[in-house]
Amino acid sequence: MKKRRPEARPAEILAAALTLFSERGFAATRLEDVAARAGLSKAAIYLYFADKSALLAAIVEAAVQTNIATVRERLGPPTGPVAPHLRTLLATIATILRTTAFPDLMKLIIAESRAQPEIGRLYLDRVIGSAFPLVQSLIARGVETGEFRRIDPAMTVRSLVAPMLLAALWRSVFEPIGAEPLDIDALAAHHADLIIRGLAP
């Protein structure tokens, strides 16, 4: 076993667990499998996580915290025209999907939310409950200032993010079985153009 710095171990365990959960499924993955992938003993995992469900919840929480913070930082203060913020939002999501394991996490949440409903609720509360109102308020401001035509901001948020969910599933589900790779950055830019033109008065 390689020696680990204690502060690095939780992140290494989470990365190993996400990889295995995505490859094998939650039910088929044993904690000893996660330990072996992380280069630790099974006993070491219990120093950080009570059980496999706690491990799954920690994966979701860690990914959510990191990515919500990234989106907020990239968006910056909600001032000026709204359209550039929407382009930045989609470009940021594309970068996250292209450079992190977030697509695997999305696949895992969709697959396991019935059997592990607390995981679905965590994502619902922390991502949809946090990010959606932020973007909805931007769109509502665009409507109020006349930058956008009068549309339903809540429905527009869902329309805005839907192709990025497709991109996540394409990357985590279809590309591993031979589908043609999807240019997520190009999809984000194309969709931003469609949305912003569709919102124009």
Describe this entry's structure for a reader.
- By secondary structure, the chain is mainly α.
- It has helices at residues 9-24, 31-38, 42-45, 52-75, 83-99, 102-112, 117-145, 153-174, 184-199.
- The protein folds into 2 domains: 1-49, Arc Repressor Mutant, subunit A (Orthogonal Bundle); 53-199, Tetracycline Repressor, domain 2.
- The termini are far apart.
Secondary structure tally: strands:
0
Low-confidence stretches are none
CATH top-level class of the largest domain: Mainly Alpha
Strand content: under 5%
How would you state the average pLDDT, rounded?
89
Gyration radius, rounded: 19 Å
Order of helices and strands: HHHHHHHHH
What sort of overall outline do the alpha carbons produce when their principal axes are compared? elongated
Q: What characterizes the major β-sheet?
A: none
Sheet/helix structural class: mainly alpha
CATH topology of the largest domain: Tetracycline Repressor, domain 2
Specify the number of helices: 9
Spatial separation of the terminal alpha carbons: 62 Å
Per CATH, the architecture of the largest domain is Orthogonal Bundle
What is the number of independent domains? 2
Percent helix? over 70%
> CATH homologous superfamily of the largest domain, by name?
Tetracycline Repressor, domain 2
